[in-house]
Amino acid sequence: MVRLVNCVGMVRPASLEETRIEDLEAVLSLTLRCALQCTQALVPVMKAHGGGRIVNISSRSANGKHLRTAYSAAKAGLHGMTRTWALELAPFGVTVNAVAPGPIGTELYQRANPDDSPLTQATVATIPMKRIGRPEDVAQAVAFFLDDRSGYVTGQVLFVCGGLSVGQVPV
Fold first, then answer.
1. Catalytic residue status for 109
2. What domains, with CATH codes, occur in the chain?
3. Mean pLDDT value of segment 134-163
């Protein structure tokens, strides 16, 4: 079975007032255009093989995040594309889902957010599971959607965020 994971994005942090049109266009283009082009390239092959799996890597930021106007918009757009493609491709046995990670302890994240940083500690305090996610947490979610046995799951967005997208933990 043919499988595709669309995993691309960039962050250009800025407040609403400081978000430049050029940054918005760059972030939207990279995130949405690349997913569209890669998917368009493989869908004919998936249809010819009688099915396939597509997983779009989104972000919990699609629900909104401080200083992330362009990034949030791009990832929210990916949610819309995921659901639309799921409807269009379901009759061909192709599933389309998205994984939306929250804070994940990648090398890049760890460099920008050291464990002993007050901001990192404050972030962990807001996560119901009280830890930063691991790359394996995201990989497991992606593997579920790519599995042959997940053929009846389509159009879904799975937040891998330790419960952060559910709401704030009472203090």
1. no
2. 2-160 (3.40.50.720)
3. 98
